[in-house]
Design a protein that fits this description.
By secondary structure, this protein is mostly helical. The protein contains six helices and no strands.
Amino acid sequence: MTTVLVFFFILGGMALLGSVGTVASRNVVHAALSLVLALLAVAGLFILLLAEFLAIVQVLIYGGAITIILLFALMLTRTREGPVRLDNAQRRFALIGAGAAFAVLTVVIMVSDWPAPIDNPVRPGFSRISEVLFQQWAIPFEAASLVLLVALIGAIVISRPEKGERD
């Protein structure tokens, strides 16, 4: 067993634990911290794949910015009704659907013919990636940032008290 394989299993386990913690946690802050763990583990997997740029983007954009915006949006919006029941009758159907999806994906992975590993893969450098990102994909990149900004402003507007409402 090689060192890379050991790190793969460790990072894969961390990603799995973080993902389960994100979904299973009833506390929003704990769920966000579990999400950060899962995202950092995925960044580690990108490093194992020699995709350093994707690892940096994963940490900076997803691990930092997206998680912070998610926490801001959740903390700025408040519910006006009492405690909400989190369990419902559809939980059984969701479990059946998740199990079916897992089974289908497992079968597809097992029967697929995977390409042979390449001895010397060609990796684009940072200059080529930045060229494509800021020339070809500049407008979608900025559109995504505007959508996130609108979501944050919307959370602030929704969280403002209504007329006659006191905290």
